[in-house]
Write a structure and sequence with these properties.
Bound molecules: flavin-adenine dinucleotide
Shape: globular
Largest sheet: 8 strands, mixed
Radius of gyration: 22 Å
Strand content: 25-35%
């Protein structure tokens, strides 16, 4: 009997912004290839891409020379150009990173150094008085002004990428959860509850599930995704005037998370957050969401216990802030003393896919691993949404030779 399994040159797993950008890059740069993008959900951007702060980062935080530094810089430029082409609203609103005590000043100076090294334009250290001219209600000793930071709706960008991908002949297959992968002499076979697919090249952009997908493909990645929920509050409409741009604290260099900040959204609303608490479910957006498999895997991972051993104190403080609005407000009032608890209304939450090494280290840089005819995006936390179009071209570059040698199947 004839095998009717659909055959693709390239299958991308995950219709978040990284998978969509990659699928779009493949169809644009190799229009003759047959490409499918599969996702277990019924629509794109259902996970990290649909639950984030919407900030187009400029690249001040990242170690010069790192993939994050390079791809954030390139990605922000590509993204704003894409938004212009697609008429997606975005705004270069700028941000201030505010040092509120003397101990933070050397870290602020280091951010300036990194920003300059990473090519971020127009950075300026502000005095207390200068800060007030930009953000009249913020308080701090000094601040770093980053005028190039922007805001956008990443789900809107994802939607536009999906439409362009389809328009260029790409196949978007929703409700297709990849449950198994096997490499054989002619390619890679993927199993889903809706049937099998054959692929010449597979690109794993499964975000919160990326390490599991890699293990399904036979890899033994040295890191594991540990999910961290980030919770937001919305600021009452009548108090939005307290924040003109984006206001951030100076981040703790030990953590890739940036600390609770104030973010304006493109629809004019204002949010505070996100915090970073261990999530008991990789795709659970409420405090009460629990997934037994996720818990067992996290607790069974040696790296998790080493992480707890290193950082239990800040971890406990974040948990306390998650359950106590009073503590959350107290953290925000350090930056904005006029803020009152009543100004904060319940908001949404997102879950970060943070890779942790077996030594308990929070892996800071993007991790994109090529293994024969597969690419696995094993760590793509913030600013991966900003960087997505540059990550896509990096991935396609990694499999350039394989794509060039693919036998035509369609
Ligand atoms: C709270 C928070 C705030 C953030 N703020 C910012 C910000 O301001 N700026 C910024 O640049 N970045 C930010 N980020 C980071 C950014 O959102 C992510 O880096 C980015 O969205 C990652 O995209 P992705 O495509 O890798 O993952 P995702 O968007 O999570 O997509 C992965 C996809 O894979 C699918 N999938 C998983 N397993 C399977 C399977 N077995 N079969 C089929 N499909 C599967 C999922 O359904 C999902 O659609 C933030 C993240 C969070 C959580």
């Amino acid at each position: 009997m004839m095998d009717r399994t659909p055959v693709y040159d390239v299958v991308i797993v995950g219709a978040g912004i990284v998978g969509l950008a990659t699928a779009h890059e493949v169809v644009c740069s190799r229009p003759h290839l047959k490409v499918a993008l599969v996702d277990k959900e019924p629509l794109p951007a259902r996970h990290q891409t649909g639950h984030n702060s919407g900030v187009i980062h400029s690249g001040i935080y990242y170690r010069p020379g790192s993939l994050k530094a390079l791809l954030c810089h390139q990605g922000a430029e590509l993204l704003t150009r894409f938004c212009e082409e697609e008429h997606i609203p975005w705004e270069r609103c700028g941000k201030v990173v505010v040092a509120t005590h003397a101990g933070e000043l050397p870290r602020l100076a280091e951010l300036l150094r990194r920003g300059v090294a990473n090519g971020v334009p127009d950075l300026r250290l502000l005095s207390e008085a200068e800060l007030r001219t930009i953000e009249p209600h913020a308080r701090g000793l000094r601040a770093l002004h980053v005028p190039s930071t922007g805001i956008v709706s990443f789900p809107r960008v994802a939607q536009a990428l999906a439409e362009r991908f389809r328009a260029r002949g790409g196949n978007l297959l929703f409700k297709h959860r990849v449950t198994a992968m096997a490499t054989h002499s002619a390619g890679i076979r993927l199993e889903t509850p809706r049937g099998s697919l054959e692929a010449g090249v597979v690109i794993n952009c499964a975000g919160l599930q990326a390490d599991r997908l890699a293990r399904l493909a036979g890899l033994a990645p040295a890191c594991r995704i540990v999910p961290f929920r980030g919770e937001y509050y919305r600021i009452r409409r009548e108090r939005r005037h307290l924040v003109r741009h984006l206001i951030y604290p100076v981040p703790d260099p030990r953590f890739p998370f940036l600390g609770v900040h104030f973010t304006r959204l493109v629809d004019g609303s204002l949010e505070a957050g996100p915090n970073a608490v261990l999530a008991w479910s990789r795709e659970g957006y409420r405090k009460r969401d629990v997934n037994c498999r996720d818990i067992v895997e996290t607790l069974g991972f040696r790296g998790f216990w080493r992480l707890v051993g290193r950082y239990w104190r800040p971890g406990v403080l974040e948990m306390v802030r998650s359950f106590s609005k009073k503590r959350f407000v107290a953290a925000l009032r350090v930056l904005l003393p006029e803020l009152e608890a009543d100004d904060l209304l319940p908001g949404g939450a997102g879950v970060r896919a943070q890779a942790v090494g077996t030594n308990g280290a929070l892996i800071d840089d993007f991790v994109i691993h090529k293994e024969r005819a597969m690419v696995h995006v094993l760590n793509a936390p913030s600013p991966a949404a900003t960087s997505s179009l540059a990550i896509a071209s990096h991935i396609v570059g990694a499999v350039r030779d394989i794509l060039a040698g693919l036998p035509r199947k369609c």
